[in-house]
Specification:
420 residues; Cytochrome Bc1 Complex, Chain A, domain 1; five-stranded mixed beta sheet; single chain; six-stranded mixed beta sheet; 2 domains; alpha+beta
Amino acid sequence: MINFHKYHLENGLRIIIHPDVSTPFVSICVTYAVGTRDENPQRTGFAHLFEHLMFGGSKHAPDFDQHIQNAGGENNAFTNQDITVYYDQLPLDNWEIGLWLESDRMQNLLLNQKALDVQRKVVVEEFKETCLNQPYGDIWHHIGPLLYKQHPYQVPTIGAKIEHIQEAELSDVQHFFDRFYCPNNAVVSICGNLDPDEAVLQVRKWFEDLPAGNPPKKDFPQEKEQTTERFLEVEAEVSLNALFMIFHSAHRLDPNYYLDDMLTNILAEGEASLLFKKLVKQTQLFGEIDAYITGTIDQGLLVIEGKLSEETTYEEAEAAVWEQLQSLQENCISADQFQKLQNHVEHNLEFGETNSLHKAINLGYYEILGDANWVNEEKNNYLNITPEAIRQRAQNLFQRTKCSRIHYKMKEENSNSTKN
């Protein structure tokens, strides 16, 4: 149970404070309700670009990182398709420095041509390194358009095209900043050994005078139910053929989200999981295999991906996966296996509640979802699942007409050289 205090400022900023006597540090997390889904389709990758630009300095703190380091702290950020999160960990005596820095870059970020040129170059190099030059690195540029025909989730976090970043103008990034980086599009969540009343006074001191913005309403086109199988073949210079089988899964606030998450645990969590035990360990059809959900706020994906063993054909690989999915549809998992799953989930949730930074991040995320207190309902949402509910969800989810397949193949010359 995470106890917290919630406040609202007149400019729309939401504040979550969790007193935590177990740590000598204070974790400050600023969660902005902006991700890839909010971007202009002709200027994608901007949420991720800003993850870098926000460390380029602000009016009163030209070197953000140096101030954090001088205060004995550390900081970082991450972006996904729904949110962008910036966080700082500082010693208790210096925690107010984090508020000063975060408020200054929310209002006074140094957006000039020099900063844009520097960070644009960094992001372009990251795009090349992680997507263009890394084996299977462009897979989400194939999965997104194949699975999403309407929703902007078709664009990966790094951006749809490298040109969208290369051609970004200063006016483009200034417009993006003005739309999304404002108090009424953000949550400040704080965990540390603090008195909540005193802590909120400090937050008011640094954030109360910031003007509210005008972030756009979230009104994204939703996907229609998939009723026919989809298929894509990709050839690239990789060392092994890979198979991707993808299904539309529940959105984050759907009760089925927890069933989908549990299904991926059954399929691929650890060496005793169904797919690993049957397809890697026993039959050796795959060299490795995994299953996971994207867990996005709107309708997400359940992905099964694996690298085929050298002699395995795609027909053999797919048939073997479907056999295991059918077994989940026909039979409830054993009481012993189910108890192990419940214990695993409960352990992970409880571990998250021991880490101050994790708590700050989770509180900010759930408040963006709609209510920070939902973080305290997660355990029951999992513990209330039954083996029969899992079986029924598998029946509904794992249908061939709802499956999208990608064969990510070795180029012919690569394939021949590998066999030789």
